[in-house]
Write a structure and sequence with these properties.
2 copies of one chain form a homodimer. Chain A contains 16 helices and 9 strands. By secondary structure, chain A is of the alpha/beta class. Chain A folds into 2 domains: 99 residues, no CATH class; 231 residues, TIM Barrel. In chain A, the strands form 2 sheets. In chain A, strands 1-4-5-6-7-8-9 form a 7-stranded parallel beta sheet. Chain A has a two-stranded antiparallel sheet with strand order 2-3. The longest helix of chain A has 25 residues. Chain A starts with 5 loop residues before the first helix and ends in a 5-residue tail after the last helix.
């Protein structure tokens, strides 16, 4: 079987005969094959044992038929090496037992050493590149500095970001130092992933949409920009995904990258115009569409593909991670629809 | 004391000597005076006893110094008259014990009669107009059809909207009928509020930002448009607030109204341009800013006011409801800052 490089070509805005597709969180709980392994290991074990991470990373490639693999891991893994005590409480998501609340808390943090602290990630990547050699490209990823900082400060998930924003507004020195050490960590972490074999990397700013554009521009954008600039030097495509931030897309764009990731809150016809020709575009199907009948899924995929048309540089994806209760058959139906419609559209045939 | 009509003039894009301000959820838990009453009554009692609703509606007018009062009530109140069994579980938000899941569930719903089913709201409005006669205008409000339908289908709060979207995609007839009966209810409810004395009304589409623009346009916009058109005939300003929907602002605008409400996810300088001169604008300070030091609050208010400049038709507000843990002194500080800066800016004096 020939290596499928559609995803990499789309990242570089090169012509493709059809639109590649992968799905955020495609290696995960919606797959019975994942749950079968997961019942024997806790979440951090799944991340830290390369043979397990490799196995679940490969599952959607073989079973769903996506055009790229994304490493199974968690954005919070590099925080352990920074000095944070990370746990995943059952049903409650991540917990950080020693959250960052003061300047002295920040001063105790160190830049994580990717080889020493997250060597298991690099080992999984090396094994995956071997496994995927005749299949599809491997995407690495990391959380963006703001999203990681928000977890470090809040100590877990939140909907209000009061502690995070309060630190940002009240303790600018602590904030800047925290963003610096986090950015340095993410730079090293992503460069190590690329060194180990990741053929593209995605930066997930999952929670940046809770910031106003003014705060984003002042307190976050310089760090994200530095991150993307440093990582881009390694020569593989960088995907800049700022979730729920389309209303400040012009600022998000200025952080750089090769591909702009879109959530589902924007009409992709508008996004194509706003983003312009200098970036590839990834997205933007509402992940809940996969709960609809297959005809509705097909029509929604077709709508997105027709709006993008023959523009080079589109990677089909959901606008957010696939939901754990999704029927895998519906994920497969989406892959089929994207394949069919995009082949027709990109060959210039009208239906 | 002369009646302060700044808010009403700003709604009509008439010149004002300063920018009026009110805050979403300004009558509520962040005020100790509210909590003092609330400890003796449950939430629905607070809504249903006009003397209590009147008292807490007036509290922020007198104590925080806002330029408009908004009726204390809940968007879900009209659902009881439609046939839904509504409760507020302690600490868990609203629960609907007989959610709408099928076409036959929808067929059992009726259009609520505002006088018979929510007469307590109309009585509170009549009393409030008397109390506010030398003070400020009174704003009525309702939930938009989508937001109300989402509660009816989900049976309470959610973050995924799987049941709601599934019905929308799988059962278009049930969806359309549900939106019809809900829209009819909201039209009658808002017209009754205006008849009772509400001098403006706000339509809260709190959760519409979870929809893609395509779904909004196809399944929601026609109903919201009909709602606003019918209510507008009563001749008072209508505020169209679609939360977390700025990336589809052009579609939100097309639903109509006199004032477009903005959350905090958009730079107001961009929004002024996107909205154009035909609407007043309300917003858009991040509500969490009130957790910052007062100098930061002041600078953030000033930034918004300076970006709007002397454009007629700006009503200052938060981009979402004020958080329950907000210090009321910081809310007062915001009112002070808006008053000072907007007076200076609108008088043409540079600082």
């Amino acid at each position: 079987m020939a290596f499928n490089d559609l995803f990499l070509r789309a990242c570089r805005c090169e012509p493709t005969e059809r639109t590649p597709i992968w799905m955020m969180r495609q290696a995960g709980r919606y797959m019975p094959e994942y749950r079968a392994i997961r019942q024997n290991y806790d979440f951090l074990q799944m991340c830290k044992r390369p043979e397990l991470a490799v196995e679940v990373t490969l599952q959607p490639v073989d079973l769903i038929g996506v055009d790229a693999a994304i490493l199974f891991a968690d954005i919070l893994l590099p925080l352990e090496g920074m000095g944070l005590d990370l746990a995943f409480a059952k049903g409650e998501g991540p917990v950080i037992h020693n959250p960052v609340r003061t300047l002295s808390d920040v001063q105790r943090l160190r830049v994580s050493d990717p080889a020493a602290d997250t060597g298991y990630v690099m080992e999984a990547i090396r094994q995956l590149r071997h496994e995927l050699r005749d299949k599809v490209p491997l995407i690495g990823f990391a959380g963006a500095p703001f999203t990681l900082a928000s977890y470090m400060i809040e100590g877990g998930s939140t909907r209000a970001y009061i502690k995070c924003k309060s630190l940002m507004w009240s303790e600018p020195e602590a904030w800047e130092r925290l963003m610096q050490v986090t950015t340095d960590t993410v730079i090293q972490y992503l460069l190590a992933q690329i060194e180990a074999g990741a053929q593209a990397v995605q930066v997930f700013d999952s929670w940046v949409g809770f910031l106003s554009p003014v705060d984003y521009e002042r307190s976050v954008l310089p760090h994200t920009t530095r991150l993307i600039a440093e990582v881009s030097k390694a020569g593989v495509p960088v995907i800049n995904f700022a979730n729920n931030a389309t209303a400040m897309l012009s600022k998000v764009k200025s952080a750089g990258g090769d591909v702009i990731g879109l959530d589902w809150r924007v009409d992709i016809a508008d996004a194509v115009e706003w983003i312009g020709p200098d970036f590839a575009i990834q997205g933007n199907l509402d992940p809940m569409t996969l709960f609809a009948p297959v005809e509705v899924i097909d029509a929604a995929a077709r709508d997105i593909l027709e709006k993008v048309g023959t523009r080079p540089g589109h990677i089909f994806n959901l606008g957010h991670g696939i939901h754990k209760d999704t029927d895998p058959e519906h994920a497969k139906a989406l892959v089929h629809s994207v394949r069919e419609h995009s082949t027709r559209i990109r060959s210039g045939v009208t239906s």
